[in-house]
Amino acid sequence: MKEYILKTNSDGSKITVHDVQMVLLEMLKDIDKICQKHDIPYFLVGGSCLGAVRHEGFIPWDDDADIGMLYEDYLRFLDVVKTELDTENYYFQTFDTHKEYNVFIPAMKFRKRGTYVKEANTLLRNRCKDGDGLFIDVFIIDYIDERKWVDVLCRLKATLYLVVVTLIENLGINPYRLKKRFVRFVRRYSRKSRERGSSLIGFDLSWVFNSPFHPVVYKKDDIYPLQYHKFVDTQLPIPRVPKSLLDAEVSVNHMSYPPEKMQHPKHIVDVNLTSEEA
């Protein structure tokens, strides 16, 4: 197996993508224990879901992990981690608990204590003061309006929010009230979509990094009921019809490997997996 090196320490030791994946795997197992204990449905999304389907584990060069859950399940998960989380090993960051949290990244970063990661993204960097531990992204999956023109207009509005909020934040100012207004807009959109009886779900409106004309959307019936699938040495949940999710989130050609020049880690600039590493 090819070795993807993320960092060479001052003593000559190396941190590889595989090393990071083994930490992420333990984190995923612990999240799964929490969710199974409290009957909270969640599932692998993005590259993590693709890894499960195509590799029965991580994509060999993937240096992060992503899960998703419906908004109502996210609220239950948030309540649980506020009160029952193993705080010696983990902490988490969300806009619900951190006013400085960026509202245009996944709703929660579930982080590992005693580790450090610097992400490649600088404009949307972590602004929370309690740490930059290795993390799992938790995406909110919510209802999407079946009327295409309504959805496109709302996504364009969300993109405008992104531009304004990011400009202000990069001036060193936290536009908290504007971010709260944006979050209310996102929740209202999905609530109205659900009330209209929409059969579609996907990444909620705060995720603006796909084209407004081609968002991450799939039929709810293609996701639920979830199934547990082999993932390295364990089983983790994926959609009932993973192809539907992967076509929307990755590519309709997701089972084909990308060109070799694209087979490299994309998210981590710097990393420490223990406090002793240089």
UniProtKB/TrEMBL annotation:
Q: What keywords sit in the KW lines?
A: Transferase
Q: What EC class is this?
A: transferase
Indicate whether Transferase appears among the record's keywords: yes
Task: Give the molecular function GO annotations.
Answer: transferase activity
> Per its UniProt record, what InterPro entries does this chain match?
LicD/FKTN/FKRP_NTP_transf (IPR007074), LPS_cholinephosphotransferase (IPR052942)
What sequence ranges are listed for the domain LicD/FKTN/FKRP nucleotidyltransferase? 35-247
Q: What is its EC number?
A: 2.7.8.-
| Regions that span the bilayer | none
UniProt cross-references to PANTHER family, sorted A to Z: LIPOPOLYSACCHARIDE CHOLINEPHOSPHOTRANSFERASE LICD
**Protein name (Swiss-Prot/TrEMBL):** Lipopolysaccharide cholinephosphotransferase
Q: Which organism is it from?
A: Breznakia pachnodae
